[in-house]
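Might I ask for a little of your time on a matter of protein folding? What I wish to show you is a protein chain and, alongside it, a tokenised description of its three-dimensional fold. I should value your view on which stretches of the chain appear to form regular backbone elements. You will find the record immediately after this paragraph:
***
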Amino acid sequence: MGWLDRIAECNRHDLSGFLPFEVGEKRVGWVRRSLTGRLAERPEVFAVGARSVGFASGLDTPERRSAALAEIVRDWHGRGLLRRVSGELLEVGAGMGEPPLLLIDRSAVQAFGFTAVGVHVNGYVRRPDGLHVWIAERAAGRHSYPGMLDNMVAGGQPAGLSLMENVVKEAGEEAGIPAALARTARPAGAVTYCLETEAGLRPDILYVYDLELPAGFQPRNSDGEVAHFEFWPAARLAETVQDTARFKFNCNLVIIDFLIRRGVLGPEEPDYAAILAGLRPALPVDPWRLW
């Protein structure tokens, strides 16, 4: 195991099994070829071709596309084709500063290979004996990755919120961080990955924030998604990521990026340049929604 293994685990995919999903001339997602027969059953919603998939010609506005997909999600859930409906809408965008092309329930994003955006917050404390970091253990009852380790605060980016508004919301719900303290989190870039899953494709962008916490601060969960928090020295964090698979897969990227920026993981590390490049691979969608 090692740093590059953690990166590779987030980027396993074979696009030969997918067709691009396009809105107009913009490639915004990827649909598994085995799903196209189901889409073709709904010609009033989808236009399925030999080389790409898109929307039927009448769905020519974000509102119409969003309404059609909402009905598809309800239908698939009712037929047992989707395990759950989250009720949280995500934006599928056209680029920086442009309005979204459509909204879709989080539960169906991977089926269409749309880019999902998330925010992850590194909560850290500088002590005389070195850098320490708060990490979370996911609750055993969560439907995804139960019991695995996680960043102190992390969550998907819902429609209608700015990135910082989402940081404040998630920080309050997941770690009991007061809004005024959460707003001191500093943006520290982003990591990207593209992972093929049973549900489809995940070409995701995680926006990273660093939040320096007071020495006596104790995070407390209020939404039931965290079993407990642990306070680790940076060296233990590095060893756990490098040598184990205890962290939820995409959290490893956020942590590796943090360790590089804090000088814990430096240029003397073998494959350092490959590690840097692996944290931000280009995504197979054009364009990304960068926020």
About this structure: Residues 15-112 form a domain with the Transcription Regulator spoIIAA fold (CATH 3.30.750.160).
